[in-house]
Each structure stands twice: as structure tokens, then as C-alpha cells.
Amino acid sequence: MHNFKKGLRMILILCISGGILFALDFALYPCTFMRNDIHTVSTTQFDDIYMGTSHGKMDISPSEAQKVNGRTGHNVCVGGEYAVDTYYIARLMLEKGCKPSRIIYEVSPGYFTMEKEEGNNYLLFYHEFPLSRAKLDYFRDTLLKCNFRTMLFPWYEYPISYELSHLKENVRKKWSRDYDTEDLKSDTQIYHEDGFIERYPVDSASFTMDGLSEFHPEDVCETNMIYLEKLIDLCRENEITFVAVTTPLPRATLEHFADGYQAADEYFSAFFEEQGVPYVNFNNQKYFKTFTHKIENYTDFDGHMNGETAKAFSRLLAEVLERVCKS
Length: 327
Prior knowledge:
Blueprint: H1 2-28, H2 33-41, E1 48-51, H3 54-59, H4 62-69, E2 73-75, H5 83-95, E3 102-106, H6 121-126, H7 133-141, H8 148-152, H9 160-165, H10 167-175, E4 189-191, E5 197-199, H11 222-237, E6 241-246, H12 251-256, H13 258-275, E7 279-281, H14 307-326
Parallel strand pairs: 1-2, 1-3, 3-6, 6-7
Antiparallel strand pairs: 4-5
């Protein structure tokens, strides 16, 4: 009898602790644009889904592409999105019955030479997943590997002053299931309902190459390539067209890291050819002249475009993809 009561007390303590943690998460974890993106792609059917990193997020406007090809689309790219994240987002979409006819995957070579870093990037996608088999498997393959605070206190990396100042609005939006995008903008950029983040023009005189590094094939992490292959296989199994794209970069950056970008093009061209999927690299000889590489069209040397340039590129991308996918 004593052991039974002790067990009940333990269960009660765990339930109370879980309730407190849930309440704190509900109140303090911010409503990010990824909340909107995951909700949209897991509840709405689209022709095209754009996946990848911040280059895709800020360089591709599905709405502009639709003006050319008539295909509906959503951009679920974001900085910090590794192949494992993309794979599980695709798994979630399929599980929820939102199967696109095509996935356009933006390839940033540098992401394949780095392990997924700990911190709120581990939660950026996972946190917004509805309860699903994909979320459980995602938890097993990612969250179990990181600091316990990431699992128990997902808000811990956000400044408490920021969390408290947004507490009332966080609770209201989550409680009412409000996905309005009005507050997802700043002095430097604006988030659009199609997932595209439009950056405002920046004076190129302020750009530096600090933080940029050269690609070396020997640095590629095996785990990243495994999940990229799993993503391609998932698309093939579900009869989803898969296309890989590397967006344009400023000429100055390409010249500064010429050997690295040449090596990256050779590495990924060979990989995608082996996989039997199209790869469009706007920085190689075949596609270089199809779009501008002038620095004034970008917001940094890393290749994030300003809004008007990104919209023009999105229209070009739509044309190129129509040709590539028909060939």
C-alpha cells in the first residue's frame, strides 16, 4: 500500500511539473514565422514547396513564381534548416495529407560541412510540429542529442525581457490560433504569407566577408548527406518531383572563394546526377549569365538578395524549372 501511494505521488508530481512546463512554454516561447510556415504546409495543399536555408527564404517568392508558371507554392526555407529538418518537414506534410507535386530544394554547400548546432535552431521547426509520427521520430533523431534544457525549457535561449514583453500577445495568438503575419516584420525585412522574407536594400559599402568560409568536399558531414538521400527517396516513393537549386551569389564572393565554389559545384553535380535528379546551380558556367551577380542587388556578400531582386529571380527560376522538369 505504501509503495502504491508513493507511486501515485510520483505520478502526480510529474503531471504537475509537466503542466507547469507546458504553461511556461505556451506563454514564453515566441510566435515565430516558422509557426506560420509549419502550420501552412501541414494544413494546405500546394503544387510546389520550396525548402532549404536562408538563401531560399530570402531569394524565392512563391507568389512571383506563380505569376509565371501558375503553380501554387509556399516557402518553408530558413536559416538553420539542415537536411534532417527538411526531411521531417516533408514527412509531416505527407502524414497530414498535404502532398505537393514538386519539392524545390535550395542547396547551400556550407550547410553540408557543419553538424546541426545546439540551441533554438533545434527547436525552430520541431517545436511547431503538431502531434504526429513525424514529430516523434524527429524527437528521437534530434532532440535526444541536445542539452536537456532544450527539451524541458524551450524558451531558455530567448531574452526574458523579450519574452515578457510579448507574453500577452503570445498567449492570445496561440489560444485563438491566430496566424496573422502583421507583426512578423522589422525595419530590415518583412515576412509574406507565402513564406518569402523580403529584405530591404542595404548599402553595399557596409558589407564584409567575415564569417564566410570556403567549401571543401572532405569536410562534408555524412549525416547531412544521409538525410538528403532519405529526402530524395521519400519524394521518389511518393511520386513527388525533386529539383535541387543553388541560388545566385555576388560576383565578388564567387571570385574570392573560386576554388571552393568550383569544388562545391562538382561535388553536388555528381551527387545529384547519381541520384537521378535535376540540379540547377546559378553560379556555374551553364547558368551564370542568366541572372545578375552585381553586389548592389544583394544585402550581404553571402548572397541574400534584396526584395526586388529576389522577386525578379523567382520569376526566372519559375521559367528555368519549367524547362528543366520537362526535359
